[in-house]
Amino acid sequence: MKVFVTRVIPEEGRKLMIDAGIEVQEWKEKRALSKEELIAHTRDCDALLSVSTRLDKDFLHASRHLKVIALHSVGYDNVDVEAATAVKIPIGNTPGVLSGATADTAFLLMLATSRKAFHMHKSIIKGEWGFFDPTANLGIELRGKTLGVFGLGKIGLEMAKCCIGAFGMQVIYHNRNRNETAEKELNASWVSFDELLEQSDVLTVHTALTPETEGKFDRSAFNKMKPHSIFINTARGAIHNEPDLLSALLKKKIWGAGLDVTNPEPMHPDHPLLNMPNVSVLPHIGSATEETRAAMSVLAARNIIAGLKGERIPFVVNPDVYK
Ligand code: 8YV
């Protein structure tokens, strides 16, 4: 049995597959594969372990011989899941193990933005640490403020816990369905989307990218937010409209923004958001810790091993494939 892996992954996951008797063929070049290359490389493989690779209908139809596809991510917006189900390929993801690391990144962006930390660091490098002015470089404080979570699932819950523990923030959230565990554990209140926009001092996005959430944070949403609010997105860049975000910041409709995800990725190095004092941008490193990436590779490997044994994969995103 042979698996094609679209990037070099942590040793933990690779070893698990090798120990299970699977031949592991990794794509070692530092560039993404084209669709044609991906089809060609998976042609003689039984499984695919996919890292940040678009798997569209054409690819899935051309690769219907695959017994399983494991993603090295919790998000599966990169995959045409309906097409995978139609050709009976189970798709697996890596839920849970990256919640802490991703929430840490959201917290880091919130705090860095509130104190203009990225901008201040750049100003030292530019030789601008000069005369002390008590009215300059002022940030805003987070103690006792309201955290609004858009998509209170595992990651949102971790972020909310950090914000309560560090700053005693009140938590409000908007989900399609109420999260009663979070309501009990965090004393969080469900609010409508408009109320979330109007009441949050920090609004943090932790939802999946779906047709319903795509472009959700646009001009009309930013216009409803508080002028002193901070917008944080560590989920997917396509959930916010980037030109509308830029314009909301320039027009002071909101105070600041922290992004680990942009639209498109990578963000262009000349993008104006990168030079705004109240904006912090990171290059999609939410899950990038040694511990989390190792754990993700292990879950992905477990999906591959089960799929190749003909068993139900443990973290399936399209359970209909087993009907
Ligand atoms: C992944 C992510 O590491 O898991 C996700 O959904 O966004 C990331 O943390 C990245 O997409 C690479 O697979």
TrEMBL record:
Transferase listed as a keyword: no
UniProt cross-references to PROSITE patterns, sorted A to Z: D_2_HYDROXYACID_DH_1
D-isomer specific 2-hydroxyacid dehydrogenase catalytic domain span: 3-318
Annotated InterPro entries: D-isomer_2-hydroxyacid_DH, D-isomer_2_OHA_DH_cat_dom, D-isomer_DH_CS1, D-isomer_DH_NAD-bd, NAD(P)-bd_dom_sf
Keywords recorded for this protein, A-Z: NAD, Oxidoreductase
Ranges where the D-isomer specific 2-hydroxyacid dehydrogenase NAD-binding domain occurs: 108-286
GO cellular component assignments: cytosol
SUPFAM superfamilies: Formate/glycerate dehydrogenase catalytic domain-like (SSF52283), NAD(P)-binding Rossmann-fold domains (SSF51735)
UniProt keyword NAD, yes or no: yes
Pfam family, one: 2-Hacid_dh
Superkingdom to which the source organism belongs: Bacteria
GO molecular function, one term: glyoxylate reductase (NADPH) activity
Family, similarity comment: Belongs to the D-isomer specific 2-hydroxyacid dehydrogenase family.
PANTHER family to which the protein is assigned, alphabetical: 2-HYDROXYACID DEHYDROGENASE-RELATED (PTHR10996), GLYOXYLATE REDUCTASE 1 (PTHR10996:SF257)
Protein name as it appears in the record: Lactate dehydrogenase
Lineage: Bacteria, Pseudomonadati, Bacteroidota, Sphingobacteriia, Sphingobacteriales
